[in-house]
Amino acid sequence: MQQIKEIANSRNLLWNLTLRELRSKYRRSVLGWSWSLLNPLAQMAIYTFVFGLLFGAKAPTGDPSGVTTYGLYLLTGIIPWGFFALICNVGLQSILSNTNLVRKVAFARESLVLSQVLFCFVQFSIEMSLVCIVLLIAGSTILPWLPVTVLLMILMACFAGGIALVLSVSAVFFRDLPYLWTIINQLWFFATPVIYDPKIIDGKVPSAIQSILHWNPTAVFIRSFRATTYHGTAPKLVDVGALFMAAIISVLIGFATFNRLKRRLAEEL
Q1: With the CA atoms of 207, 208, 210 and 212 taken in that order, what torsion angle do they form, in degrees rounded to the nearest 10?
Q2: Looking at residue 206, what DSSP letter applies?
Q3: Neighbours of 177 (CB within 10 A)
Q4: Which string of b and e fits 214-242 if b means at least 16 CB within 10 Å?
């Protein structure tokens, strides 16, 4: 409760930090915020060529949407994963990149991480708007499930934000963490069915590993996002319940870890 009170008292700073990130993201670039759309589209094109054309990967048929385009199947996985990875990456550097501010000013340090989460959420909203428009044109019945999609976006922001809080303070004490996280991020990416149909691993790995991969939180998020967008139907209730639990646990652990270590941030920096 004390942390929440401190963050509430620093809400003006949180707002200004978020605006700073939004204004400086694509400053002086020709295409500006269009890059937030072009990057996932470029990834989709590359993966479609490599896996769809060269390796002959097929997308499952959307039920009940009937969509079968592998590129759209990729898009509904790449964008949510990109949101999760972006929050973790920028959150990890949020304290280290504001060393002078942490040393000289007394404020809720959590604001540095939360401002990055809000910034990433704005970018994610733009990208998901593109997904919704494209899938609506493709014939997916996405409109009735837009509120559920927004709920999933909020839950993913909470889940990733909790991890970002842990990473941000841990990176101050363990300077090798950014390099280690790069490896963890790559492993986590391929453990999540972003570029492949999870059904292809059925029977190919031990049941224990398959269960872990199935309930991997990011895999559940991708599965749920694809349900509301690619398939045009409701996600499984058990998946939504698992995501609520994952988001709450992540936030609690994130704030607890941050609160325990933040008192030593200034001296470590």
Answers
A1: 160
A2: -
A3: 17
A4: eebbbbbbbbbbbbbbbbbbebeeebbeb
CA-to-CA dists, residue 75 to 65, 177, 199, angstroms = 16, 29, 18
Tokens 């920096």, residue?
269
Q: Tens digits of per-residue pLDDT, 152-187?
A: 999 999 999 999 999 999 998 888 899 999 999 999
**3-state secondary structure (DSSP) of residue 39:** helix
**Alpha helices for the chain (secondary structure H):** 2-9, 11-24, 35-47, 70-93, 99-104, 110-138, 146-173, 177-191, 207-214, 217-226, 237-261, 265-268
Distances (CA, A) of 45 to 42, 143, 187: 5, 26, 22
Q: Which amino acid makes up residue 208?
A: A
At residue 53, φ and ψ (nearest 5 deg) are -90, -50
Looking at residue 148, its pLDDT comes to 95
Domain boundaries, the chain: 34-268
What average pLDDT score do residues 189-218 get? 88
Residues 3-38 have pLDDT tens digits of: 677 666 677 777 877 777 777 766 666 556 666 677
Phi-psi region of 28 (alpha: psi -120 to 50; beta: other; left: phi over 0): left
CB 95 within 8 A of CB 112: yes
pLDDT band at 240 (very low <50, low <70, confident <90, very high): very high
Residue with tokens 């690619």: 230
Neighbours of 181 (CB within 10 A): 19
- The helix/strand/coil state of 226 is helix
Give the whole-number percent of the chain exceeding pLDDT 70.
92
